[in-house]
Design brief:
Elements: E1 9-10, E2 15-16, H1 27-42, H2 61-71, H3 73-89, H4 96-103, H5 127-145, H6 148-166, H7 172-176, E3 184-185, E4 188-189, H8 190-193, H9 197-204, H10 210-247, H11 252-293, E5 301-305, H12 312-315, E6 321-324, E7 341-343, E8 368-372, H13 379-384, H14 388-405, H15 417-429
Parallel strand pairs: 6-7
Antiparallel strand pairs: 1-2, 3-4, 5-6, 5-8
Helix pairs in contact: 2-6, 2-11, 3-4, 3-5, 3-11, 5-10, 6-10, 6-11, 10-11, 14-15
Length: 433
């Protein structure tokens, strides 16, 4: 047992609980033991109940920030569309203050302020006028969603590549403090890097291979398909809500509330789409960078990590080692000294069983892959191992050495710098190379 009565500090206001050496791999067991110890110490019975899983945290806050930006993209669009429809149909707004703010936004859709529909009287809908409203909404959607698939993929690839590069020479503490607006690599800001794939290639110092670009193009095409489908759903939901309101002789207030609710449901659908595709693309980008950096012909292994808050399904695969395959296999079960399963780009999930894929295992999944068995580690690997303090100390020492002898601001492009950090890290762990 790692806790005893001597580990508690009590006063009239607080009870301090100390859990040493906790990390991503052992946190469940450690916390359970801690709760049990506190229960015994206080003489209070311990009970456990299953809490419904909501979502898992991202590894770094900057990843959550990117996801939040894109998950919230449709919210403003849907508010403008809602405002336009209720204005054209003469419906009372729901959440008046929020909608009135949206009415003042630039680019707001309008249909001459003309009322074309009264559900209370059942007056026939003038389809010509109504179709004109839908047509205006379609043009508005096209203007505002044309390039978002391309940008989502580029943002996801850029952020993951930058994080993998920066984790090689920055401390865990520095990585945790990263923000999108302040994110820089080799003197270039993220806002500049995300403008074009050429910008990303220039800061990475190498051009993404044709095969890799083809993979990202497929991801972009798929997201574009989902965007098109989402836009179509918006138009369909509006039509269905209005026509159903006429058939069922619903009041103006009821139709307005129905429309607001259904558009809200579409917003939640989009959030799931954006979040899932960002995780899928980011995971793939991180894997491909490690594969490309590995010596030609070397077998590349990855270790699955799951973060605190993951569901029981994800917890079962935490720590699994997988072998990367450049090509799809007939069966992912393999015979290998280190791995029993293989992963590859495009590996499909299967209904009824948990299949390890490069991306998400389910909605709100944040699990990912870190290189296993390679010569170098980084801040991410050290954090998963629960050795972030050792890594940070190694980075600090190496940085001081290089600033005195070589360069003021060493990075992963500085000759020998990453190797020196790894050497110091192993020394502090007492490990041999």
């Amino acid at each position: 047992m790692f806790l005893g009565k001597e580990d508690f500090k009590m006063n009239q206001r607080a009870l301090e609980l100390v859990i040493p050496d906790i990390n991503i791999g052992n946190y469940r067991e450690k916390i359970t033991k801690a709760i049990r110890t506190v229960s015994q110490y206080l003489g209070v019975p311990m009970t456990a109940r299953k809490v419904e899983h909501t979502h898992e945290s991202y590894f770094y806050d900057v990843q959550q920030e990117l996801s939040d930006q894109w998950m919230g993209y449709y919210q403003g669009i849907l508010r403008k569309i809602y405002s336009t429809v209720i204005e054209a149909l003469g419906l009372p707004p729901v959440e008046v203050e929020t909608m009135r703010k949206a009415l003042g936004d630039s680019g707001i859709l309008r249909y001459h302020g003309k009322v074309i529909y009264n559900p209370e009287t059942g007056k026939p809908l003038k389809m010509k006028n109504f179709n004109a409203v839908i047509g205006a909404i379609e043009k508005f959607l096209n203007r505002n969603t044309t390039d978002i698939a391309k940008q989502i993929i580029l943002d996801s690839v850029a952020v993951e590549n930058l994080l993998r590069r920066m984790a090689k020479y920055q401390s865990s503490a520095e990585m945790r403090r990263l923000k999108l607006g302040e994110l820089k690599y080799r003197g270039k800001t993220f806002n500049w890097i995300r403008q074009d794939i050429k910008n990303l290639n220039s800061v990475l110092g190498n051009t993404l291979s044709g095969q890799e670009m083809a993979r990202y193009q497929v991801a972009q095409d798929y997201v574009a398909h989902l965007v098109t489908r989402s836009n179509q759903k918006i138009k369909d939901e509006i039509k269905d809500t209005v026509l159903r309101g006429i058939v069922e002789k619903r009041t103006k207030g009821q139709v307005s509330q129905d429309l607001f609710n259904r558009l809200g449901g579409l917003n939640r659908d989009w959030k799931r789409i954006a979040d899932t595709e960002i995780v899928n693309t980011s995971n793939l980008a991180g894997i491909l960078q490690e594969v490309n950096d590995a010596p030609k012909g070397e077998r590349v292994y990855f270790k699955r990590y799951e973060l605190p808050g993951c569901c029981s399904r994800c917890a079962k695969v935490n720590g699994v080692i997988a072998l990367w395959s450049d090509n799809p296999l007939a069966d992912d079960k393999i015979k290998d000294p280190y791995a029993s399963v293989a992963i590859w780009e495009g590996k499909p999930q299967e209904k009824g069983r948990t299949v390890l894929v490069t991306g998400t295992l389910h909605p709100n999944c944040r699990g990912g892959w870190l290189r296993w068995g390679g010569k170098q580690v980084d801040a991410m690997t050290a954090q998963v191992r629960g050795k972030a303090e050792k890594w940070d100390a190694a980075v600090k020492q190496a940085r001081e050495e290089y600033r005195k002898q070589v360069t003021k601001d060493p990075n992963d492009q500085t000759p020998g710098y990453v190797d020196r950090i790894n050497e110091l890290y192993r020394e502090k762990l007492g490990e041999k190379e």
